[in-house]
Amino acid sequence: MTTIPKGSTVVMVGTRKGLYVFHAKDRARWRLAGRYFEGVPVHNARYDPLEGMAYAAVNSFQFGPIVHRSKTLTKWTRPKSGPAYPKKSGWSVAKVWNVIGGGPAEPGVLYAGVEPAGLFRSEDDGDSWRQVAGLTRHPTRPKWQPGNGGLCLHTILPDPKDAKRMVVGISAVAVFRTDDGGDTWKPMNDGMSARWFPDRKPRDVGYCPHKLARDAEDPSVLYQQHHWGVFRWEEGRGRWIDVSRGLPSSFGFGLAPGSQGGTAFVVPLTSDGDRTTPGEMAVYRTKTAGRAWQRLTTGLPRPAHLTVLREGVASDGLDPVGVYVGTEQGQVFATRDGGDRWDVVADNLAPVMSVTASPFP
Amino acid sequence: MDVVLPGALREYAKGAGTVQGKGRTLAAVLADLDARFPGLRQRVLEDTGAIRQYVNVFLNGDHVEEPDPARVRVKDGDTVHILPSVAGG
Q: CB-based contact (8 Å) between B10 and chain A?
């Protein structure tokens, strides 16, 4: 059995037909550790260095979703159960879209974002789950409607300093925040684009956050790739600021933070009518929290009409930061110098739904 | 009664393709199996308790159309097959 050397960087690629795990000590010579859950969609998989454990959201079309775990990334353990709604709710968890640890403020805790939209919490590595009912029963829920990808809770951002605070994103609904450990949640939409509402007036729900991330140095600053626009959240002003100027398109799915404050990466797609890269594969980087963007193309293909999904952009937290981009066409591109030059980690994979990257200490 | 498991679920029964189940309804049989093979029932039933949409259950060769397993009567000597539907892509 393959053993991933300690001190490697691991890249976990969730595809429509299984999970691929790559590793490299120098972030240049990537090796495939293995392919797991063959034939089954893996919507998200990540290694958590704080917990020393990897988790994979494996969503069987027939038999439902399960969050598997592994310490080695090469041998996986099936838990005793998956997230499940109470029988009387009338709902059934169809997919797990995102799985993430509670972070420094909540060690030993695992969260899962599911479809139909909900947040689940586990304190035993996924063997048992409890729904965060305060969100499930939010008073706006009767107005929640699914987007093209489903009514999914796709982003979970624990606060690294405060266990009671968290931000989540639900497709076609809103960004929500809790400041009391999940008992109550407030929509966090001020400043977001409302251009598709008939009267263009703000509402409590009906927005479409695609992906969210916290700034590496100031966790109160958030970045958002929305259906229409890239935004920055300024806590002091209590609103989202549109930082799309300088991008070829305001539409896209994936977003990842850099390792230094003010840095983020997005992959603009042509439009919501043509969800492919605009003639070239280009990643855009900001080092000024969205005030200016740099177009990064060295080593990336052109011409190219590729699709990068919401979980398809990731960073590894190292310095200089490594950024990883996976496409529906089965490629994974990577940079190890903060974006100035890109290489191919893998090609001809099954359609990529998710990429994550982490040190494997 | 014999319960024949699909390949994808045999790991729950340590690789066994056929296991023995007890109960007077399909729901009871699945509960009986779940007690010995934790997590197996959740792979066959939705959170609502209904048989999963893309799982087919056959009782003595006949397809079980009733989605509520509590309404499906079984008895000793029956054979239950659990199969994934031919769907997806």
A: no
Reported as a single tens digit per residue, the pLDDT across A271-283 is 999 999 999 999 9
Answer whether the bond into residue A303 is a cis peptide, omega within 30°.
yes
Check B43 against A64: CB less than 8 A apart. yes
* Closest chain B residue by Cα to residue A37: B8
Q: Which residues, listed in sequence order, are joined to residue A73 by a DSSP beta bridge?
A: none
End-to-end Cα separation, chain A, in angstroms? 19
Q: How far is CA A36 from the centre of its chain?
A: 20
Amino acid at A95: K
Q: Please, are residues A17 and A40 in contact by the beta-carbon 8 Å criterion?
A: yes
Q: In A202-261, which ranges are E strands?
A: 209-214, 222-226, 229-234, 239-242, 252-257
For A23, A25, A303, the CA distances from A361, given in Å and listed in that order, are: 12, 11, 38
Alpha-carbon distance A222 to nearest alpha carbon in chain B (angstroms):
34
Tell me which residue of A139, A140, A136, A143 sits closest to A117, measured CA to CA: A136
Closest CA to A335 of A288, A292, A294, A278: A294
- 3-class DSSP assignment, residue B35: helix
Sequence length of chain A is 361
CB contact under 8 A, A81 and B85: no
Is A51 in a helix, a strand, or coil? coil
Pull the structure tokens for residue A332: 């994974």
Contact between A158 and A105 under an 8 Å Cβ cutoff? The reply is yes
pLDDT of residue A275: 96
CA dist A171 to A118, A204, A253, A326, Å?
A: 11, 14, 11, 20
Token representation of residue B70? 């509590």
pLDDT tens-digit series, residues A179-204? 999 999 999 999 998 777 888 788 89
